[in-house]
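Example with several molecule types.
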Amino acid sequence: MARAGYKDWGRCDLTYVELAEGTAVAGVFTRNVCCSSEVELGRIGVQQGRARALVVNAGNSNAFTGYRGREAVEAIMAQVAGHLGCPQDQVFVSSTGVIGVPLPKDKARAGIEAALLAEPCSWEDAANTIGTTDTFAKGAMAQAVVDGRTVTLAAIIKGSGMIAPDMATMLGYIFTDVAIAPAYLQELLSAANQRTFSCITVDSDTSTSDTVLAFATGAAGNQQINCEGCPGVDAFAAALEDVCRQLAHLVVRDGEGAQKFIAVSVTGAVSDDSARRVGLSIANSPLVKTAIAGEDANWGRVVMAVGKAGEPADRDKLSIGFGGTWAAREGQPLADYDETPVAAHLKGQDISIEVDLGLGEGRATVWTCDLTHGYISINADYRS
Amino acid sequence: MARAGYKDWGRCDLTYVELAEGTAVAGVFTRNVCCSSEVELGRIGVQQGRARALVVNAGNSNAFTGYRGREAVEAIMAQVAGHLGCPQDQVFVSSTGVIGVPLPKDKARAGIEAALLAEPCSWEDAANTIGTTDTFAKGAMAQAVVDGRTVTLAAIIKGSGMIAPDMATMLGYIFTDVAIAPAYLQELLSAANQRTFSCITVDSDTSTSDTVLAFATGAAGNQQINCEGCPGVDAFAAALEDVCRQLAHLVVRDGEGAQKFIAVSVTGAVSDDSARRVGLSIANSPLVKTAIAGEDANWGRVVMAVGKAGEPADRDKLSIGFGGTWAAREGQPLADYDETPVAAHLKGQDISIEVDLGLGEGRATVWTCDLTHGYISINADYRS
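Resulting structure tokens for the full complex:
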């Protein structure tokens, strides 16, 4: 890591990770069509499947900066590829911070020169260096036995809501020594993403730069995973999803202004995907999120959010609960509903909302945080 | 109007409107699938096209109350139909307020008995009586010359955001003396709705009870409007849309915690409908709304909201402005961007955001308000 000085702050803001030759890479990226050049070039990079280095710039997202932004990223890729003697598309670059200001090429060049000479740093230092307005360093670890070898996953992520004042982006990086074919790593990452990062929301706003990359060096020496029936594939897939879920939860816990962590579990949907969309409609509802902030068991707002989701639902089969206690069953408030355990549950920091649609076998859990005065203060009580 | 006493408040909360025989009716209703029995029965009622009476209950939305809620509405319809000697489906009922508590039948019956004996009241009194947490009475008037006759439209609406603490619903009623066939009134109302009520958002949350009804008595004596080429149809359609837009703007101006009224104009989209969806993505973005609250010309957040809308957009053709001043053109910040006029514009109460997608001829304007500490206070600093 190094100090590129993208902002006027006395901290490291450029992270450089060198990867062993032959490292497999997979990635998932924002679907925001106004995405940054980093995201465009990263999408191209993962197609060839190999990575030698990762560079993360903090303090400037380089998004919506036109051809000048793209040139800045290509200059970084060329500089690192020259140093390592590798193809340029094996260098992955992410940037996070203000939108609309081209990344300064001179600062990036000097920062990378310094980083190439720097001592290796800890995971925690790296997690701090990729952060912007994050309030704590976020990392996760997991292990799995694959083909008789213990493989390890280490991961870091940044993000505090989809965005902080003028600062955007969730960036996550997973590093593992497992031997795996790039295409299969991509398949496992995409599947894990669907049940983890795609199931969190802080404020419904989708960054222009969101990126999660997984790098696998192969140093563990297991027989390469390249098919569904390969030895240890299930164990590795579970460990990968475990790490992704840990990272995803950390982002929500550091959500802007968040005081409570909320799990929304939807069952009885017509499909898992439909359940996820109903869950996100609840998790994105300002009225549900403010009710939880106010420790108010306002299940009528949950009904409203189910109904507006645009997914199959039948009002007269719908059941709503908090913390394992049903408040309404099959379209009506429970006659003997005792709010005491619900009120006690809502006073805690970890909240669960249960919704049963009563239609099918589809299920999903999504995670969010409450909407508080803190969110308004961070995003409105402020002039750029 | 009368005091049904749906809540413990010393005010009128039941509005009764008697309509001349032969009055045509049209309506648009919430798409929330968890809608109230009032909405279900109203949808059936407008199909036969005639109305003799309207009853509006304030203080209880009667939503999510199962068969008991439906019985309460049917009892009101039967009571009024018996009094007027008309078919039951010509009586329209709306309710607004707490979700999940069946409307008390005895209070409704006594309230209607009192209302049938009451003196006629002013439009302003009626607007106050249908309100819940609204902070002012909302009404609109327009006139048009149709077939040589001056026809008048008078309208009232309630709503302060989609919802207030435990209180839901936008309810709007338009009364006119024009002679028009019910099917054609429905066609004109649906078209006006698409460009007015469907283009406003306070908090993206869709009530379970939203209803707009238009009643036309025919007393103006014009040749009945029943076709596209009928005399005066364009003048009447324009007056109807004018009234709908006035009402829609009043709801946004009374949005929970609102300090600024925001018009988002989208041009250059592939279609009008696509432009409307891009506009709503911007108008629903918590980050755009908090930026306006903070008087911050944060056009990067507008870029983000365009990109997440799921509609055709090309980052490199996108232009963003505030109050008529471009901040970014064709995918890049303007080199000579002077923020002075934009900063002055954002200090005002009426804000405009201009977005040009540069793709086609589609255009739309949507209206919203800013997101402030007031919204959080109303919805979170509160226990039911």
